[in-house]
């Protein structure tokens, strides 16, 4: 490794000594001296940035210039330097240059942590007396100052990540790699309202290449902040978060379930409004992969609490909202219903998913009798073929029942028709209602292993 010229090291030490002296005094002379040296400082920072970008790693540049981090740290604490647009931009770019996308040694890991801490401190109101005095001399309140710095920093980062994807040939880094570095740096800042535009831009950035991924720490922090209402995300950003970070989708679904099942029972209208406000039905309709995850959670909760009326009503409401959203998108959709319900018997899928309002009333009884006969035939065949031991038949029966629970509109119609139905014509309707309330043998509850998180959630809800 080549050593830097001695003059270069000496100049770095001179600037470090100068910035340390600035920080030790709040006198007018110190402020005047800072302002006088802003232009030379800008030129020096530009030279530093060239050196940082020309080195292959953070370890190399910090070995060549050991006090580089101290200088940048001092500059970040100087309000006059950070208030200057050009100097602030150069300081931030130097920090991004030192940030390691994939730290390979303890030095780079520690540097990443330090940079995140520095950025966090830049946007937080400090209690330091000297700092407050210095800001006051600039004729702005400390809170206003930090908000202003935060907004400017967010604007600077937005410029970084809005660059289009450019593949790299080994000598030049792909611009998509900046997304990972920026997302890492944003982790301490996700709960600040001013950061919301940057969070949205990062989440909605197209994944055009393998380098465009975001930090897991960032995705985890955003998910936690969203669930705690510390940050607001628009629909596109929220769905993008769920697609990139599966735990955030699971947390959102379980949070909606918990909210709907633990509070006083809402009216059907309020429950539907609560479900739609979660954005989950819209996301499920647009992305089959999201629906499959949410549907598995609903399946697990139903396995554990099959007699809980509130669980069934929630599943019915959610499915109804999902199907309505799917109908709106249907002309644009290329995914078949079978892809959304891969475990449901194909011959029963469309008849059950068809809404009663889509069938003439005079055909309701015929439709229900066909459904009842088909369900009964399927359950009898599965139980006979499976005997006393197997779980496959019970699994199939459960999937049929699960689909019936999801499409309970036909169960409600069967209840209405049964009131006016003659006794000799009531057999099929009675069987359908009996199967809905008491699925055959309940064997599916003994044979399925539930997800631990769903099991822990359902313990909170007694059967009703």
Amino-to-carboxy terminus distance: 73 Å
Please describe the biggest sheet, giving its number of strands, its sense, and whether it closes into a barrel: none
Shape label:
elongated
Number of separate helices: 27
The structural class is: mainly alpha
Q: Level of helix content?
A: 55-70%
Mean pLDDT across all amino acids? 79
Per DSSP E runs of 2 or more residues, the count of β-strands stands at: 0
Uncertain segments of ≥5 residues (pLDDT<50)? 125-131, 167-172, 441-458
Order of helices and strands: HHHHHHHHHHHHHHHHHHHHHHHHHHH
What does the radius of gyration come to?
A: 31 Å
What proportion of the residues form beta strands (DSSP E)? under 5%
Q: Your description of this structure?
A:
With 464 residues, the protein is mainly alpha-helical. 70% of the residues lie in helices and 0% in strands. The chain contains 27 helices and no strands. α3 (38-54) packs parallel to α7, α10 runs parallel beside α12 (196-204) and α15 (246-262) crosses α18. The longest helix is centred in the last third of the chain and has 23 residues, at 364-386. The chain is elongated and about 105 Å long.
Layout of strands and helices, then pairs:
Elements: H1 6-24, H2 28-36, H3 38-54, H4 58-64, H5 68-76, H6 79-83, H7 85-98, H8 106-122, H9 129-137, H10 142-161, H11 177-186, H12 196-204, H13 216-227, H14 235-244, H15 246-262, H16 268-277, H17 280-286, H18 288-304, H19 309-329, H20 337-340, H21 346-353, H22 364-386, H23 392-406, H24 409-420, H25 427-437, H26 444-447, H27 452-458
Helix pairs in contact: 1-2, 1-5, 3-7, 10-12, 11-13, 12-14, 13-15, 14-15, 15-18, 16-19, 17-18, 17-19, 18-27, 22-23, 22-25, 24-25
């Amino acid at each position: 490794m080549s050593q830097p010229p001695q003059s270069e090291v000496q100049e770095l030490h001179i600037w470090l000594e100068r910035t340390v002296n600035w920080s030790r005094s709040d006198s007018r002379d110190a402020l005047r001296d800072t302002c006088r040296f802003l232009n030379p400082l800008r030129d020096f920072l530009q030279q530093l940035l060239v050196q940082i970008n020309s080195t292959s790693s953070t370890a190399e540049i910090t070995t060549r210039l050991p006090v580089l981090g101290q200088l940048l740290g001092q500059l970040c604490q100087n309000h006059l330097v950070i208030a200057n647009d050009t100097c602030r931009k150069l300081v931030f770019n130097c920090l991004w240059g030192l940030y390691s996308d994939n730290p390979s040694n303890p030095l780079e890991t520690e540097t990443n942590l330090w940079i995140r801490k520095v950025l966090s401190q830049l946007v937080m109101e400090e209690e330091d007396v000297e700092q407050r005095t210095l800001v006051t001399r600039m004729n702005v309140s400390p809170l206003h100052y930090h908000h202003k710095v935060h907004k400017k920093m967010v604007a600077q980062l937005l410029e970084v990540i809005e660059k289009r994807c450019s593949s790299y040939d080994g000598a030049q880094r792909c611009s998509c790699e900046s997304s990972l570095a920026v997302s890492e740096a944003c982790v301490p800042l996700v709960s600040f309202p001013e950061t919301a535009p940057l969070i949205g831009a990062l989440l909605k950035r197209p994944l055009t290449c393998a380098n465009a991924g975001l930090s897991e720490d960032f995705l985890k922090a955003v998910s936690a902040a969203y669930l705690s209402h510390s940050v607001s995300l628009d629909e596109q950003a929220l769905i993008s978060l769920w697609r990139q970070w599966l735990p955030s989708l699971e947390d959102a679904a379980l949070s909606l379930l918990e909210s709907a099942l633990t509070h006083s029972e809402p009216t059907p209208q309020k429950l539907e409004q609560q479900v739609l406000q979660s954005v989950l039905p819209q996301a499920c309709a647009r992305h089959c992969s999201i629906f499959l995850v949410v549907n598995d959670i609903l399946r697990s909760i139903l396995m554990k609490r099959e007699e809980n009326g509130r669980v069934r009503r929630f599943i019915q409401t959610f499915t109804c909202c999902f199907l309505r959203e799917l109908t709106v998108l249907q002309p644009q959709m290329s995914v078949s219903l079978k892809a959304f319900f891969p475990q449901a018997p194909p011959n029963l899928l469309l008849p059950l998913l068809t809404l009663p309002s889509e069938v003439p009333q005079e055909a309701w009884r015929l439709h229900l009798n066909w459904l009842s006969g088909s369900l009964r035939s399927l359950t009898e065949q599965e139980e006979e073929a499976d005997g006393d031991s197997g779980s496959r038949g019970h699994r199939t029966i459960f999937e049929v029942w699960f689909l019936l629970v999801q499409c309970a509109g036909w169960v409600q119609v069967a209840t209405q028709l049964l009131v006016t139905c003659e006794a000799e014509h009531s057999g099929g309707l009675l069987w359908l209602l009996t199967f809905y309330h008491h699925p055959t043998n309940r064997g599916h509850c003994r044979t399925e292993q539930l997800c631990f998180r769903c099991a822990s959630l359902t313990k909170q809800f007694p059967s009703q």
